[in-house]
Design brief:
GO molecular function: hydrolase activity
CATH topology of the largest domain: Rossmann fold
Cofactor: Mg(2+)
Keywords: Hydrolase, Magnesium
Strand order of the largest sheet: 3-2-1-4-5-6
CATH class of the largest domain: Alpha Beta
Protein name: HAD family hydrolase
Number of helices: 9
InterPro entries: HAD-like_hydrolase (IPR051400), HAD-like_sf (IPR036412), HAD-SF_hydro_IA (IPR006439), HAD_sf (IPR023214)
CATH architecture of the largest domain: 3-Layer(aba) Sandwich
Radius of gyration: 21 Å
Order of helices and strands: EHHHHHHEEHEHEEH
Bound molecules: magnesium ion
Strand content: 5-15%
């Protein structure tokens, strides 16, 4: 019954839905930290200050991660705001390393700029650009991410009139608020909106609870039947076939 209502809108998760996020995260994580270590060491030497041990010796990458975990526990409101957690952790570690508060803030900010540059070097799957171009002709599109990619910085950002950064809203998925914000800004009802995402917990469950239909991107595991309203796809490229199969494709 609800399945026959024509779709008005489609919302998309980003990381691991429109691109493979693992490689870019590894490159970003190691890349910005190495940049900070190198630039900071040069800066200290130029000021005649000891740069030994180096920052990355005093604080290996694992201790940075540990520092962020502690901050997330002690500042639960910010637990999903990864950008805030990173910058705050870096500022504190640089302070412990011996920088005065102003320099610590400056270097943490510079490292985060480098982080964001690297973080946005994502490579969407080749099918994504033509897919969004076609879908954008028939449906209103939104992105909803917990990650810190600002989709408007990417070429494919132009396909998303609505882009929700759930972590920065301090309400990361599975909180329903980022979905509700997207629906309100799209002017779409949940029953006539399809959410596309790879995480069962952060995409499928919350969208389904709101009455949205869901395409779950999950590489083939088995063919167990899905609950009503949930459709499993191996890859986002299979979305047009799903829309046709469900009779949801807009004919033109
Ligand atoms: Mg994802």
């Amino acid at each position: 019954m609800a399945e026959s209502l024509p779709l008005q809108a489609i919302t998309f998760d980003l990381d691991d839905t429109l691109w493979d996020n693992h490689g870019v995260m590894v490159a970003t994580e190691t890349g910005h930290y190495a940049w900070l270590d190198r630039e900071l060491s040069g800066w200290l030497q130029a000021r005649g200050r000891p740069a030994a041990p180096r920052f990355s010796e005093r604080f290996p990458l694992e201790s940075f991660e540990q520092h962020r975990r502690v901050l997330a526990r002690t500042h639960p409101l910010h637990r999903g705001d990864f950008t805030w957690l990173r910058e705050r952790a870096l500022t504190e570690m640089l302070g412990e390393y011996g920088l005065d508060p102003a320099s610590a803030r400056l270097w943490a900010g510079a490292a985060m700029e480098r982080f964001m540059e690297l973080r946005h070097q994502v490579t969407p799957y080749p099918e994504v650009e033509p897919l969004l171009t076609e879908l954008g002709r028939h449906y209103r599109l939104a992105s909803i991410t917990n990650g810190n990619v600002a989709v408007q910085r990417l070429a494919l950002g132009r396909h998303f009139p609505v882009a929700i950064a759930a972590g920065e809203m301090l309400a990361p998925k599975p909180d329903p608020r980022p979905f509700l914000a997207a629906l309100a800004r799209l002017g779409a009802s949940p029953a006539r909106t399809l959410h596309v995402g790879d995480s069962w917990r952060e995409d499928v469950e919350p969208a389904r609870r709101l009455g949205m239909r869901v395409a779950w991107i999950s590489p083939h595991v088995d063919d167990s039947p899905m609950p009503p309203g949930i459709h499993r796809l191996d890859h986002v490229r299979e979305l047009p076939a799903l829309l046709r199969q469900l009779g949801l494709a807009r004919h033109h």
